Amino acid sequence: MTYETIKVERHGRVGWLINARPGVLNAMNNAMRDELAEAWLELDRDPSVRVIVHTGEGRAFQTGADLAEIAGDGVGMQRYQDSLMNFDLHFTSWHQNVSKPVIAAVNGICAGGGLHFVADADIVIAASDATFFDPHVSVGQVTAIEMIGLAKKIPFEAVMRMALVGSHERMSAQRALELGLVSQVVDPPEQLREAAQELAEKVARNSPAAMAATKKALWAALELGLTDACKVGTQHLVGMWGHHDQSEGPLAFVEKREPRWAE
């Protein structure tokens, strides 16, 4: 598929989804939301891709809804409102039920709706000059879904502070690391994509089937109580019994070679 607002690349086993509206700090218009939805599914369905990295071009990772479109002729705002009313946030990996591991590589500014992608990624790394903030209340809007998603990753007080301070304070990459919002800070920032590719290649060495089941089990745990989460996790564990990868992994270990996973 040909995209206008994003770029899709493949580097070995790693698929890259790149926000490509740098002139407006990668703000999302309706076209970008639609293209993101298509791109997530394209990469998730591609058997040659085992891991997906999401990043941005220019000075920003993602800055949320394109306010120029929303404030324009009313059509953009209506469609945006319709998607929220129907909880049809199809532009994120979580809402598209992407089964492959997703790494968000945050470059520069990540603001507002850009936090959707941080909340919904499996792993988040950031350039040392990355900043995070939520301007919703500063432009008369309610912040909800992004912050609710972040509340499952970092302490609630930090989420509430970001939500209420709005555009008047930015969280640094180092502070995000301290809070557990990101797991790695890359310095210098210019090496972010190289670091993301390296991390993705490590993840890609593992069993695709086992990773998909693991991802389902761990995300489900965020929506369930401890006992129910463990029961669901056990179902995913047992579901791998008899799978090629379950026997191939121990055999490769004993034979001191790289495993040959089922595609």
UniProtKB/TrEMBL annotation:
InterPro entries: ClpP/crotonase-like_dom_sf, Enoyl-CoA_hydra/iso, Enoyl-CoA_hydra_C, Enoyl-CoA_Hydratase/Isomerase. SUPFAM superfamilies: ClpP/crotonase (SSF52096). It holds the Pfam family ECH_1. Gene3D superfamilies: 2-enoyl-CoA Hydratase, Chain A, domain 1, Lyase 2-enoyl-coa Hydratase, Chain A, domain 2. It comes from the Bacteria. Signal peptide: none annotated. Belongs to the enoyl-CoA hydratase/isomerase family. This is Enoyl-CoA hydratase/isomerase family protein. It comes from Nonomuraea harbinensis.
